[in-house]
């Protein structure tokens, strides 16, 4: 069956290339901009990412699926012009996203994090922490809860969260036979959902920047009790660990993990990194803790530095206007230098061995970098087709006559656009200004609920999407096959999304968190009880 699916993917790719090469599709270059107007700002702007996502889930081939989606977007943009399509794929797509200062900063941060993980493994710090934790964490549930707690504590940035939690907890969860897919879910569910309810985070800074004419941070804080998707995801994650319930594909992965197979599928994209799992026998727990602590401290300092903290700006303001990309690069660079010096002073590694970890760390991050580059390029395709204008029109058309239902409608729209584009921040940028404009001078409480629905929907779609950068980072942090992570996480995210949608309907009418939040918790408890009785797929025998 899988071979047939691969053949289907190959056939679709060949058809696409044939269409591109056909002389019937070659139009004059000056017609491209006019022709693209046929698809601009319409539903067709969302078709390229939907094609990529569908192919990825069907064929299990991420790279080819993303590239086909990019080709579809470029074809639409150029009105099926061969020259225009090729130029838009590379010049308007890949080259432009890779040369973006923000994106390049994220890629450098990834490479440095990869080098640090390699260093900690080679020095024996990761293995030492695994041995230390195994004496104190006795159960699988304990290992999963420890992962959740660490994920909640590292709320500064979702990228930083994914890679740090993964590198620290992977030896512990492996020891207790927790599947890599479950680890990836725990990492992903404590990344964006935690960051979006943390007032001091790069996400809070991003959201506050989109709220014009209002106190952004104040609105962000008031919206936290209404952020049902984030709150319910965390609640659901903890409850399912304690109840020992798994369903859907995750149940298969966890059942196999109990038998010793933490991967389930043959795909092991990070298997070569396991060669250094034991590392230096002289390594100690401090060889992991000191680098991680330095990384946290240096990244926080780097972020507030870019926000002007050392030029007299207060801490909160500095964080709210920080450049996360530059701050994380600066912080991780200094943490890398400190780590190398530490290992040389402790004589667990010499200078030559430390430098050898740089290319090895880069190689370990190549899968994540490739998928990120393709995902960013696909987003560039949707942007060029006017996806934001299409969504804006849908939201404004829904505003009249449906005011009490608007938070639920906005939640769904936000989830769809974030799922299709793979970006939550881009979804904030589209929806929040529209919401502020719709409710300006009218119902302030409903505006807060709707802004929270924007954030919750964006995080929900981002959480579900195979082309989301956070989802990709979670796969990299857990060293899990990306498609495995997406397919196992999707049913869990959908459950939280459905309960959140119902909660926003309630919130739109009661307009107070004191009623809406308890109702949402009760709905989630009822849902989890039904899942435990009817759909539990975890086989412990």
What is the averaged pLDDT score?
Answer: 81
Q: Helical element count? A: 27
End-to-end gap = 29 Å
Radius of gyration: 23 Å
Reported for the largest beta sheet, the result is: none
Shape: globular
Topology, number of strands: 0
Range of strand content: under 5%
Helix content range: over 70%
SS class:
mainly alpha
The arrangement of helices and strands along the chain is HHHHHHHHHHHHHHHHHHHHHHHHHHH
State the low-pLDDT regions, or none: 7-35
How would you characterize the overall build of this protein?
- It is a single chain.
- This protein is mainly alpha-helical and 541 residues long.
- The protein has 27 helices and no strands.
- Helix 6 (101-123) packs parallel to helix 18 (324-346) and helix 8 (140-153) runs antiparallel to helix 9.
- The longest helix has 29 residues, at 482-510.
- The relative contact order is 0.14.
- The model is unreliable at 7-35 (pLDDT under 50).
What attributes characterize this protein structure?
mainly alpha, about 550 residues, globular
TL;DR?
The protein is an all-alpha fold and 541 residues long. The chain has 27 helices and no strands.
Chart the SSEs and their pairings:
Elements: H1 2-21, H2 32-35, H3 47-59, H4 62-78, H5 82-98, H6 101-123, H7 125-136, H8 140-153, H9 158-175, H10 180-189, H11 192-195, H12 202-210, H13 216-223, H14 228-243, H15 249-258, H16 286-306, H17 315-320, H18 324-346, H19 351-364, H20 366-384, H21 387-399, H22 406-421, H23 424-439, H24 444-464, H25 469-478, H26 482-510, H27 513-534
